[in-house]
């Protein structure tokens, strides 16, 4: 979907940006070519983490591929926020921490900040948390080298979406 919007984004250059909302859940997941859990029994929480890792790696790839097009690509983590999605998907967690999670507005803060910062102050393809660049990998999480498979994931996503290579 993001790539299909490139012509519109190019029209908005040099200040166009794509801000992808990922999650701290991606820290536990290495990038994997198995996008649809074909290799093992489906686990929704793991699938979520893997998809969120794909978003961070794709953002990095887009920044590299389209670096001369005047489009900024950034990914971010909103922190735990009390939203309808959390209430529905994690009812026990949501109930136990009711009133202690971030508000939706607090979760959205870094998205808005990324949209408004002068581009020179932002790092292309970087991952942000609370208005600052954050690491994409945690020590000892064994995810560090996994982004090398991004090219084959891009090919796979393009073929699944009927886009040309
Ligand atoms: N909440 C957290 O603590 C948390 C933590 C880390 C990351 N995140 C990330 O933050 C993002 C938002 O999460 P959330 O908790 O706010 O979830 P949410 O309460 O489920 O809200 C999701 C929003 O996305 C919209 N949406 C879903 N599918 C769509 C589609 N195909 N086209 C257009 N709009 C669509 C929904 O619209 P409708 O209401 O109209 O269906 C809804 O407004 C997600 O990417 C999530 O992974 C959230």
Summarize the structure.
The protein contains 6 helices and 4 strands; from the N terminus they run αβαβαααββα. By secondary structure, the protein is of the alpha/beta class. A 4-stranded mixed β-sheet has the order 1-2-3-4, sandwiched between helices.
> Whole-number average pLDDT?
95
Question: What string, H for helix and E for strand, traces the elements in order?
Answer: HEHEHHHEEH
Q: What is the CATH C-level name?
A: Alpha Beta
Q: Between the first and last Cα atoms, what is the distance in angstroms?
A: 15 Å
Major sheet characteristics: 4 strands, mixed
Question: How would you describe the overall organization of this protein?
Answer:
InterPro entries: NAD(P)-bd_dom_sf, SDR_member_12. This is Dehydrogenase/reductase SDR family member 12. By secondary structure, the chain is of the alpha/beta class. It has a single domain (3-160), classed as Rossmann fold. Helices cover 39% and strands 12% of the residues. The protein has a four-stranded mixed β-sheet with strand order 1-2-3-4, sandwiched between helices. Strand 1, helix 2 and strand 2 form a beta-alpha-beta unit. The chain binds NADP nicotinamide-adenine-dinucleotide phosphate. Residues 21, 23, 78, 80-81, 83-86, 107 line the site of NADP nicotinamide-adenine-dinucleotide phosphate.
Q: Any key phrases for this structure?
A:
single chain, 165 residues, alpha/beta, Rossmann fold, 4-stranded mixed sheet, globular, binds NADP nicotinamide-adenine-dinucleotide phosphate
């Amino acid at each position: 979907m993001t790539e299909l919007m490139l012509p519109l984004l190019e029209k908005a250059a040099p200040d166009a940006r794509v801000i992808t909302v990922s999650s701290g859940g991606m820290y536990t997941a290495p990038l994997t070519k198995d996008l649809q859990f074909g290799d093992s029994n489906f686990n929704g929480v793991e699938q979520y983490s893997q998809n969120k890792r794909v978003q961070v790696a794709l953002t990095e790839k887009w920044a590299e591929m389209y670096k001369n097009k005047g489009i900024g690509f950034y990914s971010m983590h909103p922190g735990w926020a009390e939203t309808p999605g959390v209430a529905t998907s994690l009812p026990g967690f949501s109930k136990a921490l009711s009133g202690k999670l971030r508000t939706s507005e607090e979760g959205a803060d870094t998205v808005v900040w990324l949209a408004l910062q002068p581009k020179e102050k932002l790092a292309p393809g970087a991952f942000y948390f609370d208005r600052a660049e954050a690491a994409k990998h945690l020590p000892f999480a064994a995810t560090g080298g996994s982004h090398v498979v991004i090219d084959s994931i891009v090919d796979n996503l393009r073929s699944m979406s009927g886009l040309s290579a």
